[in-house]
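re: ur question from earlier - yeah i can do the single chain one, its not a big deal. heres the input i used so u can compare w yours
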Amino acid sequence: MGHDHSAAEHGGQGAGGRSQIGDSEIGLKGQAPDGASLASGLAAATSGYAPDDVFFMRAALALAGEAMGKSEVPVGAVVVRDGRIIGRGHNHPIGRHDPSAHAEVQALRDAGLALENYRLPGCELYVTLEPCVMCAGAIQHARIKRVVFGATDPKTGACGSVVDLFSDRRLAPHTTVTSGVLADESATLLRRFFAERRRDKQAY
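and the output i got, formated as tokens:
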């Protein structure tokens, strides 16, 4: 995912009204509720996306908030298997001194440890920002079944914004992609992060 600063500072709406790059404080447990336990107004507020997609994207947004609290670009991700979160991660390249420490890679590593396997077939990955080429490659190697992302990344997005690595079935025969889930919340969080950073720079 394009978690670099230049990629995430562009706000606005993408094609079809999807939010690009991107304010939300949330916290959830690791298992999706059944339909009866969801708030009655949730479906109407989430543009027709499946309740589980909304639930797990909110969990990813909570992790993005953790990244923001560490002065990292606020992107979060979770890996889900059989309706349960088995891997969590947030953007952390600055703190870890690791250019590969994007949210998706962190979540894949966590899930791999949980399953004691570098392959994650049957798993879904939810991430608040469109994956970059590096993360798309890791997702493909892990054989993730489905990727769900929020805001698009017009600078480094590898799910159609710049390139579409998942549309080539030679590269991604195992993976489908759903975009735009809680895109506005994801984009707003990113915009707030960069606005606060610009204010801090102007204060010096």
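The two ends are 31 Å apart (CA to CA). not sure if urs matches, ping me
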